[in-house]
Saccharopine dehydrogenase NADP binding domain-containing protein (Drosophila ananassae), 433 residues
Amino acid sequence: MATKKLDAIIFGATGFTGKYTVLEAVSVLKGLTWGVAGRNPEKLKAVLQEIGAKSKTDLSQTPVVIADVNNESSLLEMAKRCRVVVNTAGPYRFFGENVVKACLEAGTHHVDVSGEPQYMEQMQLRYNDLAKERGVYIISACGFDSIPADMGVTFIEKNFDGVVNSVENFVYMGVKGGAKGTGSAALNTGTWESAIFAIANRSESLAIRRKLFPERLPKFQPALKNRSPLSRASEVDNKVILPFPETDRSVVYRSQRFLYEQEKKRPVQMQAYMTYPSWFAGSVVVLFAMVIGIMSKFAYGRQLLLKYPRIFSGGMASPEGPSEERMERSFFRMTMKATGWPSSEKLAESTDQYSTPPSKTLTVKVTGPNPGYGSTCVALLSTAKTILNESDKMPGPGGVLPPGAAFRNTSLITELGKYEHGIKFEVVGNSKL
């Protein structure tokens, strides 16, 4: 008798992100059947024992599947065992594609937490047509990169009562009571490694995008202008801002491109910024970013960055990752300001442009705890659960999609707000310009 398929398998469950995904699965996947997968059965059992004790849940009967990213047959067998693979094994530029291929061959959906634009866009370029043919959803950026931003734009559009021209996203990450005494690291070195290789290979994105999107989108006016680095933003109490790394913006762009091509919806322009309490704090970040950017271009420089993460991250990354105390006290807050036209405003005749400046604004806040390994894991599992329960509300018949395109018409935003480490979306301002 054939073994009944599990609803989900968490692949890479012994890694830092994987372990915390297992912890969140106890509540998010309650009522569903799920298992864990990785190379080492003893380590997998140890994770189940540790998380079972922490969550006060008996996980001893949780299925354990042996799968190795370098063994394609084992990946295929894993994919055949479930309806959706929850992939936490990064960096995805090295380890992601084999898992995607196994899922496509098995007819199994796939979600991951990649924040690597080159990997995500390459997967879309190579496998989107095959995914649609097989009826499979391959969805990346299902963690802090980029669920809050991409679904935040979706939330804005659903609440705007009009047409959105642009969104400016101001991101703040902090630790309640300050980070002192919690252990200074905020990132595990796996996340650090993914970021280093994404920075090092940023130029790849241009070539991929030219193939992926041979035709440019039309230009819509007014164009959203970039704010000056190290300027102050009144939207976030005059905090100092810096451009946010490109992941969120590139993911939102792909969602907006998809909706324009499929539904002829006017694309939303978007810019993202990080916020800092002072010019000094922002300047220190700029200095570290410059050093990392230069060093990442050379093989020897990358070796040093990966060998000494504490030094080159200013203590923000370490092999041990953040302490439990720091994770419990960490949080993020996004302030998303949209401008556009109310529904009463009409388009100019015989054009899809407006003849008047934007006259309406909407401000949304997106908040959550522990962005790296709490909210991220809840978001990842919630996307898997949404595919299982609401695939009829997703764009058919499948494809390699960003979250905003995939989950626009589902209840994912509501689902994200149900859990202790979930993500909440709320309207905090609505006015005329």
Observations:
- The mean pLDDT is 93.
